[in-house]
Amino acid sequence: MRQTTLSVALEVKPESYDHLSSLLDKLRERRDPDPSGGTGPFADFLTRVPAVHFMSLSVFPGFDYDPLFVIEANFDGEKGPFWAQLESAIGPELRAMLRCCKRPLDNDGPLFDSITAKDARAPIAPYLERRSLTPTVFHHGNRGMTRDRILAEHKLFEATRVELGCANVDGPNPYRSLTPRQIHAKLRAAVHPDFTWLDETAPKRIPLAQNIGDWVRLIGFIVAAVFVLSLPGLFLSLAMPWERYLILLAVVFVGIAMRLKQIGVALPGTAVATRFSFLKFFFSQLIPLVLFVLFYLVVAVAIGTPLSMLATARHFDAAWHGMVIWLLWGLAGAPVVIAGIVLWLRVIERRDASQDAPPVDPVMLREMARREDWIPQNHMGSLVLIKPGILRMILIRAGHRGLGLVLRIIARKGYLGSMRTIHFAHWAMVNNRSRLMFFSNFDQTWESYLDDFIEKAHAGLTLAWCCGVGFPPTRFLVKDGASHGRQFKEWARHSMAVSRFWYSAYKDLTAEQIERNFRIAIGLRKRTLSDKDAALWINDL
Amino acid sequence: MSILTSRDVLRPGPKGFKAWIQRVVFALMPGFFTFLRRWKPVMKLGNNYLTSRYDDVREVFATDPAFGVVYKPHLDVIMGGQPFFLGMADTEQYRHDTDAMRRVVRPADVPKLAAQTEALGEQIVAGADGRIDVVDTLVRRVTFTMLGDYLGVPDPPGGDLRVWGTRLFEFQFVDQGNDPALRKEVDEIAPALRMHIQNEIARRRIEPGKDDVLARCLALQAAGDPAYSDDFIRTSLTGFIVGGPPQPPMVVPQAMEQLLRRPKVLAEAQAAARAGDDDRLRRYVLEAMRFDPLAPGLPRVALTDWTLGRGTSHAVTIPAGAQVLAAFASAMMDPRRVADPRLFDPNRPASDYMHFGFGLHECFGRHINHATLHLMLKPLLRQPNLRRASGKEGKLTKNGPFAERLVVTYG
């Protein structure tokens, strides 16, 4: 089933900030005296909002803007039914919170009035749906695992623990003397009566249509990006003789390269040692790159030839031949354009200001600390200003779009590379794209989570977040940046707000445990396993 | 034969072409509402407005100051002019009357009613010799017996509470055209029912008997609580008899028909019944009811000019005095708010259902319904080899909005 991540960000009337915060605290207190929540009256969230995995409600205080109320939700299925479920569960509370928000000045004003007027009873779901923001980048840790499946497979896991632990309490455990294959058969026979769904075929975590969609979107994005980068070359090649065109490309490229060599190095005190090299990366990807260029040519020729025939009245042979030549000239210009953009970016990066000691409100810090580490999972929400400039804005949008599409391809097995602690995370832009929000639901402590990011995914993290005002100094979008561990953490803490209300549908489960449960369930769904498969499978028991 | 002694629960339905037209209209209704949801969410027909989307239906139900109930004129006929809270707006008297009845219709009664429902069903199914009409023999008998006993209103001497209740229900909720023939029957039944309940009040005042709703009312009356006048007790019990027991025989057989149409789902529901998993069985029955609920919608009247769906692209201002049909059957099939509405999914959240209405006039007996509707089918579902009877009677037939006959065999 499709999973959805979204957020709703609404500006708050400054005078209502405290009231809204207290409403959120009251809602949180309805859960249970136990700060980890989940067993009090609020536990019915599980049945009333059966789609939700994680949800948070936060208010970000503002210095440059009015406070911002953010609903972050990660759930199964489409957003329409989710909002209806949420309204059914906490509709009156949400309506009171919406009354603390500012009336939108755009066309949503009348809808806002209809739900916030005195004694208003119109459903709030349409308004929340209308104001939903699509993330610029998102990551689903245990992708394709519906909430019900996660809970069901965990029950199965617990049953296997009971069976393995109590198989023979008074004597030697009979499982110890069995072969892996026999262990599988015996365990399956023991748990099967209570888990008859083991006989059913496991739903695919990523259905074929979704898989194809992911690839088509990524390829489409790259084709479009290459086309845009080759546009200057396409126009110049029409206006210049080819010899002069080539000379121009070479001269400009060499000039840019020389300048980049001068300014490409890190500014004093900002370098972080890394083994990553753009050149090495380029050569490692050379074969796919060549294949991709061929693919691009095929696609572009297929699209361009009929248009060319239409525009120039040429025959097919002449049209496609001319199109290939023209596209190749365009491609020849693309490296120069890329080099030019990189140079421009580097010039901007060198002038960027980074904040060495971002202030953190001690009261807010205490509030955050008070809410963290009660369960194996934690939550963070952050909001930063976006650096100005047209190039930066284009790169943020394209970079986020590309990163998001790449994540859909590479993060499919429950993990983000070697990071095994993220359930759901996303970035989204607010305030007319002048601020960037980040929300994450992760395992372990906030410190260890960021350490994990810094060590294992600093390039992606830097790419996604380097546009934030005050972010540690970066090079070429992906270098340094988040690798400045201490500075990055202080910056991240500075940008965070208290997660006043946070809900997890499976508060005791780590992303790793969910994958483990999944593997155990997949094994138990099979009636028999080969010796080799069984030997691998029992590692998870 | 006088209507007071009649045993025909339903009036004769239309025959021939008229009956065929009625069937076609009912069959086309889901498609029609799908069209409306997509293209004309609030449709005007003269002075009537049809609302078909989940959000709009919910808004109509929730906004009772703008959309009032239309029941008072017919209720006045049935109650002899005495006020009953079903016909009221959200007034002090409404709150007073509903509070008073909540003191005698108690949450603690629900488990007992559930047990009684299941036992009665068990007894009927066991005595049916492998073949039963789900509508009349099973559900109607269980409902009227159980609720009549609980309320303290037995069958009238020489009469049949099932006939009286169902006729008055038809007059109150179905008869939009003010059929003179039906009105004639109502003019006989209504005073007779009021008289019957008044007689019971008098009888029970002398012989209190068992603990039921009537006995509790009389005890409070005797304790000096001014809320429980004879008029109030009689009117409330009359209202409960008219509004309550005639409904399960409509909707529960419809749910059974939906289960029979889906053999895999039926097998799962039977497994839940056999395992005694009442919660799971309830989910199956509620979900089955979503595919053929009690009615397409409930009527309301606009009390003031009101813009429905304000701020949306389909906002419509409904003038005061216009009739509005809040089509809750369509709302429960709206993919904008109900995930995969065409999929039979017994694990749906409560927000996907509006079986018992919503807002001020949400069914007073919803907790009883929630606890008992599925148990009416449970004894039947536990039977082996449960299947439709052969021929026409094995398929649910309807007489207007009423389920008429559905015969199943088992064993």
Automatic annotation (TrEMBL), chain B:
InterPro entries attached to this UniProt entry? Cyt_P450, Cyt_P450_B, Cyt_P450_CS, Cyt_P450_sf
MF terms per GO, please? Answer: heme binding; iron ion binding; monooxygenase activity; oxidoreductase activity, acting on paired donors, with incorporation or reduction of molecular oxygen
Q: Which PROSITE patterns match?
A: CYTOCHROME_P450 (PS00086)
Q: Which key words are in the record?
A: Heme, Iron, Metal-binding, Monooxygenase, Oxidoreductase
User: What SUPFAM superfamilies has UniProt attached to this entry?
Assistant: Cytochrome P450
What's the superkingdom here? Bacteria
PANTHER family according to UniProt: CYTOCHROME P450 YJIB-RELATED (PTHR46696:SF1), P450, PUTATIVE (EUROFUNG)-RELATED (PTHR46696)
Query: What family does the database annotate?
Result: Belongs to the cytochrome P450 family.
Put simply, this protein is called Cytochrome P450
